Amino acid sequence: MKIITFLTLVFLSTTMVFAQQDRKAKEILDNSSASFSKAGGIKASFLFTLENTKSKTKEVIHGSISMKGNKYMLEAPNYLVWFDGTSQWLYIKGNSEVTLTKPDKEEAQMINPAVLMSVYKRGFDYSYKGEKSYEGKNVYEIQLIPQKKGDWKNVTLYIDKTSNLPVYIYLQYSNGINNIVKISKYQTNQSFVDSFFKFDKSKYPNVDVIDLR
Predict the structure, then answer these.
(1) Model-level pTM greater than 0.90?
(2) Least buried of 28, 29, 90, 97, by fewest C-beta within 10 Å?
(3) Per-residue pLDDT tens for 107-147?
(4) 3-state secondary structure string, the chain?
């Protein structure tokens, strides 16, 4: 379940010191955050790569995530995850049970790219690294660096100049782990009812719910 630990950072609620920030970077991040807010329901297709630089191993997962506000439903080849803003259901395909938990705020938020595009407002210094071409798209490169040392070093974002949405997210941990997410497709203005982000027992009649909250 490497994707569940992706970006499960301990974001500090320190006050942002605007004088230390790059104004161009802030403008781009603000525009991207606003684009997510205006997009309504979003479905995104992604490629997630976990690299361990110490063991020199790599794991790659294809999937999609449907988002509305802080709610999401994540689909990967071997599992499904639902999060309704409070509770999270994890179902390993083929198993006879689904695990129900209540993740902490930071863990739940960091799985959702839409939320990632607003957390820069807390506990980060950020800088604009320029424009570049990425997989046929013109993108802005932004680097986020935590204001206090922790388990991770920095986050690099590529933000599409046309859509203002992130297409590449790179997270480097201090322990030699790198997480990379490439978002290949966005579908915006999707209509998701709130129940879509909850585990539906009627669709899995032979699956038991293990409540660990």
Answers:
(1) no
(2) 97
(3) 555 555 555 555 566 677 888 999 999 999 999 999 988 87
(4) CHHHHCCCCCCCCCCCCHHHCCHHHHHHHHHHHHHHHHCCEEEEEEEEEEEECCCCEEEEEEEEEEEECCEEEEECCCEEEEECCCCEEEEECCCCEEEEECCCHHHHHHCCHHHHHHHCCCCEEEEEEEEEEECCEEEEEEEEEECCCCCEEEEEEEEECCCCCEEEEEEEECCCEEEEEEEEEEEEEECCCHHHHCCCHHHCCCCEEEECC
